[in-house]
Design a protein that fits this description.
heterodimer; A: nine-stranded mixed sheet; 28% helix; B: 323 residues; alpha/beta; Rossmann fold; nine-stranded mixed sheet; five-stranded parallel sheet; 8 helices; 29% strand; binds flavin-adenine dinucleotide; binds adenosine monophosphate
Amino acid sequence: MKIVVLVKQVPDTAEERKLDLTTGLLDRDAGDSVVDEINERALEVALRVKDANKSTEVVVMTMGPDGATQALRKALSMGADSGVHILDDSLAGADTKRTAAALAAGLKVTGFDIVLAGNESTDGRGGVVPAMVAEHLALPLLGSLVSAEITEGAVRGVRQGEGGTLNVHAALPAIVTVTESSAEARFPNFKGILTAKRKPVTTLSVADLGSADLGSAELGGAGLTGFGPGADARVGSTVIVSTTERTARAAGRKIVDDGTAATELAEFLVANRLV
Amino acid sequence: MSNVLALVEMSHRGEIAGSTRGLLAAAAKLGTPVAVVATATALTDDDVARLGGLGAAQIYAAVTAAAGAVLVIPALEALSEAVRALQPSAVVLANSVDGREVAARLAVRTGGGLLADAVDVRADAGKVVALHSVFGGAYTVESAVDVGLPIITLRSGAIDDHAPAATPEVSAVSLTVEQGNAAVIDGFNDEAAILARPELRGAATVVSGGRGLGSAQNFVLVEQLADALGAAVGASRAAVDAGFIGHTAQVGQTGASVSPHLYIALGISGAIQHRAGMQTAKTIVAINKDGDAPIFDVADFGIVGDVFTVVPKLIDALNARTS
Ligand SMILES: Cc1cc2nc3c(=O)[nH]c(=O)nc-3n(C[C@H](O)[C@H](O)[C@H](O)COP(=O)(O)OP(=O)(O)OC[C@H]3O[C@@H](n4cnc5c(N)ncnc54)[C@H](O)[C@@H]3O)c2cc1C
Ligand SMILES: Nc1ncnc2c1ncn2[C@@H]1O[C@H](COP(=O)(O)O)[C@@H](O)[C@H]1O
């Protein structure tokens, strides 16, 4: 079985993330980039299939700038077999819709039995790319699974819905996304880190993808992969109208409890008409 | 005025989703609100009256056996048909698990533009403008679609308004759904609804608990304070991971984004990922043993103290006031 895991490099959520106020685009120099945590969990699902059946092939795919290779190397050190990097100057600034078109074209090139992704990215929170990929490939999407069981011909799992969970299944090929409630990812071990350097990473340009769609103006251009509302705003032919920064919150009153803090808080809530 | 479609989500028990009011209110700001819904059996008169009460001027009601049997595709097909039939100027959907999958597929299908996770919409010289709150409210971004159909997902609880009630005209259609690209639903496991408490998203007051509560039993303290205030219950990811409460209560980067009038954080350190989901609250109160906890940087009123001593006293003080 061939599993392709879609991984994305994102700004570390542990640091302050910034937008450029004139362009509305993500300021990539403002902080460190990491593999989105949710994608490590998606990879974990794939690696567990491989643990149980060594003949499983796990490919990690990303679309992003040069530096996104780091994300692939991290995934290879965790245990993926090979990487695919969709890299092309003309894709710089791609929005979610164009990203999905490129990933779908890439997936046609590599082939797969199942595709695993995160339910949403921490930078964009769009949660739309995998569904767009599924629509391009006319495949079922099992989205937002908290657990997944992958067998030769099918995938079944538990989907986190709004008012509870659902038991769902689909025949392969299919696209699956997992939530942060799915199993925590393993750490790369020493051997993994050493062998990762020797594992193959293929680079695909837009020409390699051979998809006429990717060049079309209708898909929209000037966006930046990975910045949600902004990037989403550029799907189709969309524009940022304005970007404003909120003034940072200031700390207010802080008291140390000496036995009367609860009363003081109750008075504060009353005085401010909050109760 | 042009039609604006709002996708109404129906639970498998036939309840109209809580997101519907906000969706129809948003649609009404942009044009004539049309509720689009896909169900396995025809809508009842009650459903029609309720949707009218929420502002639907028209209901596009698609009946298909596939509704409730497969994920998302019945709603997608209903919406695609409605787009063809009604030539809308925009489509609004909930930014829910189902809503965004439908929106994403619809954007690919129609060549439309997707404006995701909007907190408000407005019409500006004939253009639809969506407002987004980005990176935990640190930025406000406005976006629009230049060419193609604007498809907007709305953050749950973000819109307070109510569209004027209407008497809807109902267009009933029956739909055959190609199920080849759909995932099959084998069963529903409903969460026991906590009836008396408001929904987290959109609640005026939220009381959240973190790892500092220590156990699921102790977490009851958070619920008691919430009930004394008529508030919704939230939690940090650490509290959810520890099993104190279900994932739907999580506030933050990968949980709910809330903007209540009052947010009370109990035993929560205030990691940047937690603050991303609550720092747009009007007033923030924090109780934490550790005076250096980062939650105090954003708190309007902070108490350095033990939740197990402060909170019971606070509940008593609040109850004394009301009785
Ligand atoms: C990609 C990513 C996404 C994330 N998304 C989220 C998210 O959506 N939401 C979220 O919350 N977190 C999220 N996190 C996790 C986040 O980084 C923190 O780990 C988490 O918020 C910590 O939760 P906590 O404050 O309850 O626990 P801790 O950080 O352990 O804090 C517990 C606090 O309780 C206090 N305390 C202990 N006992 C008492 C007592 N008796 N009385 C008073 N105070 C007491 C302690 O002083 C401490 O400050 C995410 C992390 C990552 C990497
Ligand atoms: N540029 C990308 N490269 C690879 N995978 C991506 C990319 N963008 C999104 N994805 C996948 O789609 C998921 C959801 O992303 P999003 O729709 O942006 O919230 C991510 O967790 C990834 O698995």
